[in-house]
Structure to design on (63 residues):
C-alpha cells in the first residue's frame, strides 16, 4: 500500500531530524569542554596543566 510506505518515509525523516538535533545538542555541549581542555594545555610542551599554575616543564626550568 502506498500510504504505509509514505508513512514509513515520514517516520524515517522525523527520526533523522531528531537524530540531527541530538547530535547538534551534543556538539554544543562538547565545544565549551574542548575549549577548556585546549586552554588547559601548556603552550610550550602541549601537555595538560593541572590547576591554574604553570606547567611542570616551566617549573623545572626555574628551581
Ligand atoms: Zn609545559
Amino acid at each position: 500500500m502506498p500510504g504505509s510506505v509514505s508513512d514509513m518515509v515520514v517516520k524515517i525523516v522525523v527520526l533523522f531530524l531528531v537524530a540531527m538535533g541530538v547530535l547538534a545538542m551534543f556538539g554544543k555541549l562538547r565545544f565549551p569542554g574542548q575549549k577548556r581542555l585546549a586552554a588547559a594545555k601548556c603552550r610550550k610542551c602541549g601537555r595538560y596543566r593541572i590547576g591554574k599554575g604553570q606547567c611542570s616543564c616551566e617549573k623545572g626550568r626555574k628551581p
Notes: The chain has one domain: 5-59. Residues 5-59 form one domain. Residues 42, 44-45, 47, 55, 57-58 surround zinc ion (CB under 6 Å).
